[in-house]
Amino acid sequence: MSKLSWVSEELDGLKQAGLFNRIRTIESPQGAWLQVDGKRVLNFCSNNYLGLANHPAIVKAAKEGIDKMGVGPAAVRSIAGTMSPHIELEKRLAAFKGVEAAITFQSGFAANLATIPVLVGKEDVIFSDRLNHASIIDGCRLSGAKIIAYEHNDPASLEEQIKLNLSQYRRGLVVTDGVFSMDGDIAPLPALYEVTKKYDLLFMVDDAHGEGVLGKGGRGIVDHFGMHGKIDVEIGTLSKAFGVVGGIVAGNALIIDWLRQRGRPFLFSSAMTVPDAYACLAAVDLLEGSTELVDRLWKNAEYFKGKMKLLGFDIGHSETPITPVMLGEAPLAQQFSRELFEENIFAMALGFPTVPKGLARIRVMISAAHSLSDLDHGLTAFEKVGKKLGVI
Ligand SMILES: *Cc1c(COP(=O)(O)O)cnc(C)c1O
Q1: Which atom of ligand 1 lies at the shortest distance from residue 110's CA?
Q2: Which domains does the chain have, with CATH numbers?
Q3: Does residue 18 carry a pLDDT above 80?
Q4: CB of 209 closer than 6 A to ligand 1?
Q5: Is 181 a catalytic residue?
Q6: Could you read off the pLDDT of 29-50 as tens digits, one per residue?
């Protein structure tokens, strides 16, 4: 017996349960169509909501950025100085989102790991939506605060937990995803805010799937609900609709200043690269210049979701371009995904632990990069496979 035989057993167990994730290789730039494992397929997987990942203006900005300032930031920002494109990006993002200040991180994941532990510690309590993203959960754990889950998108459950627990702690933080990425539903921010206000709690929302998607011209969930100035801190990502990579924390200027002094992924890990920063600046330019891409994203989503319902699929209760196609057991979802791939459709199955057991699904990610004929092509394949596997 080797000391790692347990790993082989775990991996075999995943394979038997239909939960082993075989990751495909993409051999082309991102876009509506991809070359995947040697085959040209329609892309229903990526978070490239606006088609910016390979947009000519973004690619050009990254190349010009390299010519001007090179590639790597060469050290952490707090020790060796911070490069001007990163500062420029933070100013532009703050203005775009209508907040006092913003700071960027290497990723949205890192932004959560940085932010939660600077706001709360051992003597404090966090009230966290039961379905929050893994990076929020990990940020909560790193903080050392007591973590109390409230029922998903349920302000009454939040208030109940606050009443039961808050008095035993120094400070409280309420944290929620803005858009829940597995179901595509939106947090009821105004009602949650009323509860946080009543008990004077810090309020944080992670808008990773709302950035560039919700609100006027993609300004995010706070803009969507017209709640400017009411949310203490907003997490965002530059890796989804923005098409590049990186994380944002936006909101109250005091919190942003505090993160520059104490946010560990800021202090102990290098910044996003120079071309990343320039590419993101170009993305802000595009979004500020026109709402065309965001409008097309929503039009595409409405079209696709409407037709899927007519075909008889259960597409859950999404309020965003995220379209879950509910299939139940993980092996069926995996088989569905493989059959779609035979039809030249790239749409991945999601099973436990990404979603709860028995709620496996195919998740279709609609993008502004899709044409209506692309969507029709996808719908035809879904109909064919759905009938073949007895789903519709
Ligand atoms: C995707 C996502 C993240 C992570 O963002 P990255 O920039 O890819 O690290 C964080 N939070 C939520 C809610 C997400 O959906």
Answers
A1: 9
A2: 18-49+292-388 (3.90.1150.10), 56-289 (3.40.640.10)
A3: no
A4: yes
A5: yes
A6: 999 999 999 999 999 999 999 9
